[in-house]
Every structure is written in C-alpha cells, then in structure tokens.
Amino acid sequence: MSVSRRALLTTAAGTAVAATSIAPPAQAAQKVPGHAAATLGATADYAVAKLRAVAPGVSGFPVGTKFEKWTYSQNGDWVGGFWPGTLWMAWLHSGEERFRTLALASAEKLAPRQDDTGTHDLGFLFYPSWVTAWRLTGDDKWRTGAIRAASSLIRRYNPKGRFIRAWGALNDPANAGRVIMDTMMNLDLLAFASSQTGDGKYLDIAVEHARTTQRNFPRPDGSTPHVYDFDPASGAPLGPGTVQGYSPASCWSRGQAWGIYGFTTIYRRTGQREFLTTARKLADFALGALSPDHVPVWDYLAPQAPHDIKDASAGAVMACGLLDLSRATGEPRYREEALKLLTALSETCLTRKSTRADAVVARCTRNRPSEDGVEISLPYADYYLLEGILRVLRPDDIDRAIDLSMV
Prior knowledge:
By secondary structure, this protein is mostly helical. The chain contains 14 helices and seven strands. Strands 5-6-7 form a three-stranded antiparallel beta sheet, with no helix packed on it. It has a two-stranded antiparallel sheet with strand order 1-2. Strands 3-4 form a two-stranded antiparallel ribbon. The protein starts with a helix and ends in a 5-residue tail after the last helix.
C-alpha cells in the first residue's frame, strides 16, 4: 500500500464544516498563562480593529508596505492567499460577517491561478483562501478549485530528482533544478487533494519532495540553506545556494521557519516519524539561535547576527510551527517558546504607535540581499500572527479553518 493510501484510510482530514456564524470562544486544549492570554487577546482585537478600518479600501492583494501603506498585486503574486486568509482569521475571532464577505470576494479573484503551472506557490495561494473557504462554508466550488490548483502544482514535479521545481515556467531551462525550503509549505495542498479525491498521487509527490528536502537541506547542526540545486536532467544533487539568505552556508530565518512548520505538517498528514525528527532538529537550531528579545534576525548565521535586521514574519511562522510541533511531540517546551515568540511580536512588533499604518505587524524583512523590503510590513506576518494566536486561544476554531488533525 502506498504511503498516501495508508494516510487516506486513516485520516479524517478535509471534512468541510459549514458555518454561517461563530460559536463562543472554544476552550483551549491547554492552559494559557494569564499574561500571555491577555496580551494575545489584545493583539487579536487590535488586528481586527485594524482590518475593520483598512479592509474596505484594499484594492488588490497586499504584497508589502511602502511608507506604511500596502502596495498591491492584482493577480496575487505568490502571497495572494494570505489576504483572504487573514480576513478568515478576523472572522473566526470576531464573528463579524463583513470579514467573511470580504474573504470570499478576495478569494474569488484568485480563480485564474488554478491553472498556473509557472509557480510552486499554489499552496500559499489556495490553502488559506480556497481550502479554508470550503471548510468554513461547505461550498464545493472552493474544494474543486483547490484540487485543480493541486493538479497544476504536481506538473512541476521532477521524477528523476524527486522534487517540485520552485521557479520558472515548465519549458524554461533556467532554474529547472532549483529547490527551495519554502516549498515545504505548499505540500499540504497536495495532501488535501489526495484526501478529497482518493487519488494517492498528490500525497505521494508531496512525500517524495519532503524526503528529498530532508536528505539535502539540513546540516548536522540543524540549520538549513534557502536553496538546493539539482541537475534537472539526472536529478543528481549539486549543492546548496541562496537567494534570500546571506550565503549558501548561512541560515535564512524565514526559510528555517517554513521548514519547521512544513515538516511538522507532512508528519501530521503521513505519520512518518522521520519528518517529525527533522522538524525538531530545525526547531532546536532556530531556538538556540534566537536573541533574548525573541524576534528573529533575518538570517541566523549572517556575520552581524544576532545584532542585525529583524524579520518578525519569521517569528510568526515559527510560532505556528512550534505550536504544531509541541502537539505532535507532546513536548511542552515548544509551546512555551511559541508563546514567547507570539508575546514578543505582540509587545515589540505591532504598528500600534502609527496613525497611518495599514498592516498589523511591523519589523519584517522580505529580501535583505536585494535591499527589497527591509523592515517593512508583509501580509504573511499578519496572517501567521493571527493564526498562531488563534491556535492558542481558539484551537477548535482554527482546526475548523485549516485542519490540525493527525493521522
């Protein structure tokens, strides 16, 4: 029996939960210290208030800020799923119908991307938008569209190297063998497609890509490069590289966070413990590299670390991954560190003091080597901060939205 068929037979993942209203706050599965609960609750309230004011004027998909105001993509770029996802998080926290309406309207604008074979980022685009829409409304068009996007994504699979190509059109030889850590976060769309169709090919490809990443990216100390290159014809590994990190030998903090979250998720979908072992290894390195303020620097191994430019988005992603990892391993220390991260972001990285800021989270860095978006706001920081807070305060509601089940 293939890995994916075994997972399909043992998981209840993917069942839609139609909802038109929000239940009272769910009882947290684990006790939250009083200070953390108050801080995170206030942050979620602040985020909802900010979205209430800003969302009606949003004219596309936010990609980052310039002078504290969102700049937009009309097709979603690679980040289009995070705006409707953030609106869904606001709806779960507040119950305000306006956020549900805006989330659905924003997600609808991503419809043309279902057939996009030119990017690996279809999971980022369609999971927090379309999969969540289906899980929260039961409308089958969202489920169907997400499966169609998964079918586009697997066309990027290289069977020789057993990896999903990150960048470039399918017929473009440039970057044909380039794999990046970020892709670990796109694999759950494939797990969703297998759970919904009964066709194991999607999850099988996700597992093979995760194994290839696992074999080649982690160093003995648990750090990872952003990029690993392969010969696209033979599939042979060539060596590490980077685009957004300091160097091929450094450790870009957001990539490390993608790895923690992504490997934990693929463990949850398959039950294969080697993926959990890898997630723990990556998490232990990142936790050891954190500065006392619990806001990650943009690259843990850049020469000026830990006294360097910050990336709050890496902290938000990492917090979500650590909460997942704590639940999967039963180790409270990962949850405790996640609470420290979320609290630090809430206390030192919000836009509270600005009267013009469109975003919730400040102090994010998109691409330091290119001097592109250094300490700005980014849409995925807002999304993952809210996801992390809801994982703590409303675990049942966030499970309804994104499926936290384990096989």
